[in-house]
Every structure is written in C-alpha cells, then in structure tokens.
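> agent: user asked for a holo structure of the chain below bound to pyridoxal-5'-phosphate. Plan: (1) validate sequence alphabet, (2) canonicalize SMILES, (3) run complex prediction with ligand conditioning, (4) return tokens. Step 1... ok. Step 2... ok. Step 3 dispatched.
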Amino acid sequence: MPTPTAFFRGQYVPLEEAVVPVTTHAFNYGTAVFEGVRGNWNAEQGELYIFRLADHIARLRQNAKILRIAIAQSDAELVRVVTELAQRNGYREDVYVRPMAYKAQSVIGPRLHNVSDDVLFYLIPLGAYLDSAAGISCMVSSWRRVDDNMIPARAKVSGLYVNNSLAKTEAEQSGFNEAILLNADGHVSEGSGENIVMVRRGALITPPPQDNILEGITLETVCQLAAELGYPVQQRSIDRTELYIADELFMTGTAAHVTPVTSVDRVPVGDGAIGPITAAIQRHYFETITGRSGHREWLTPVYAQAAVRA
Ligand SMILES: Cc1ncc(COP(=O)(O)O)c(C=O)c1O
C-alpha cells in the first residue's frame, strides 16, 4: 500500500510531514479557503473517478480572490497535482480530497494584504458522510447563517466554518443528524455542509445565493440531472414552515452526495419515507459520479491516466 501523501510547499510529502507552524496566519485567523472533492471508486471498472475537479479548482481560485490569496499555479497545474496525488495515494475506495489556499506567513494581525500565501492538498479515504440510504433527521438551528457582509458563505472560508460547527454540534447533541440554518431574515439557507432542496408539487425548489448559501457543485449537478429527468427546478427563498409541508426534502454536497431528509424538528417530511423524486435523482446521481452513465466530461479517471503516462 503506498504511503498517505500530501502536496505541501510545492512537493509531494508523506501526509504526517505536511504540518504548519503554530504562528501561521491561517491557523490564527481562519484566513484560508478550501474545497472538498470526491473520488468515487468503481470496483467493476477498477477506476477512481474524481468528480468535477476542474469546477472545484475554479471555485477555489474564485474564493482565493475574495480572500486576496494569490495562487501561483495555473488551474491546469492544480488539476494535474490532484490527479497525481490520487495516483500516489493509490486508494481503491471512495476518497475525499481537501484542496486549500491559505495565508501561510507567520505574522501577527488580522488582515488579508501583505501576508504571503500557499496551497496544499491532501486526500483521505471517506465512505458515507451522512446516511444517504436511510435518510436523516434535521433540526432548524438556533444559530443563524452568517451574512455575505460578515463572512461570505459562497467563499468557503475556513474561519466561517465555526458557524457551521456550532450548528452541527447543537443538532447532534440534541439528537438530530444535521442542522438547517436560517439566514438573518429567517429564510432557509443550508445545512452545515450541504445545500438543501425541497420538492413541492413535483418541482424542485432551492434557495438562491442571496440567502447565504455556498453555491454548491453537487446542487448544480443535481439541478441539471433533475431537468434531464423532466423535473422543473426553481430557485427562490424558502420559509421555515415550508420545510414542514414539503412533499420531499433532500440535501446535496460533495461529502453528503444526495441525502434524503425524512424529518425536520421531529415533523415527518411527507409520510416520513424517502420520496420517489428524491430516489430517482439519487440513483441518477450515483450512476453519474461512478462512471455508470453519461456526463463523462465531469469525471477525471485517476488510474487510466497513470497507465497512459507509464
Ligand atoms: C456549507 C456548505 N454548503 C454546501 C456544500 C455543498 O457544496 P458542494 O456540493 O460544492 O460540495 C458544502 C460542502 O462543500 C458546504 O460546506
């Protein structure tokens, strides 16, 4: 089995050697942006497919711009780094890649300018994050989602995830699987690591970016797949009480895939079972990410590329 490997300070190193000093700006002030990318294992094909890698790299660069983080490498170089990292790690199971662009300098004082930057990548094996087979219970969090004028949710800033962590811990310690955060004006925003989609009268409804969501790549994928299956998709604000009367509800995310929500605040969603539209979308999504249906343009095969290079 190959050694777990990270890409750190421009080199592939053993994962345990990828460590930053305690004085690092990002560690002290949360000044980093990150991504989560999945590699999905297809056992019959003996292939690991990285999902929408170029889109994750593009989002990392966009978010680095918000935090005034300069990324020295081109997008194409970063795509190559992630692919090679996956090859070097050699896992034959589902994996999760963590790209990060961060304020790397050891310097005191919160600011974004005049602090030097770097990128790092690591990869871990990761199976199910939430129970996407059985569905999950959610609570509406007492914590409100941060506003774009406070810390922009779209930017996937490390420090912002304190907001998500407060909500997730409250939910789990109250006996739920996941939190749903409302924004400052009381509209549904998202989960602690997932976007949210409601099904009402046969249509998919999901909050717009202005409700302080991360503009999810899985969400965009699911909206496209849903349209292909013939379901209309609408982006508009969602009231809290609509969660209680939705026909179906599900969450989307790189880690969470498509996870049905079967209750909110102990109120069953629909009749409490996984709904037919959620099930159809979930099936189509899993076939797509594991290379069993169309949209090959979203997939980066890891081992086929290694064979081509060898
Ligand atoms: C807060 C939050 N919302 C939504 C998502 C889903 O985004 P994506 O589908 O791009 O992974 C994530 C996970 O990345 C997240 O952390």
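> agent: step 4 complete. Summary for user: The chain has two domains: 5-127+298-309, 136-274. The chain has a mean pLDDT of 97.
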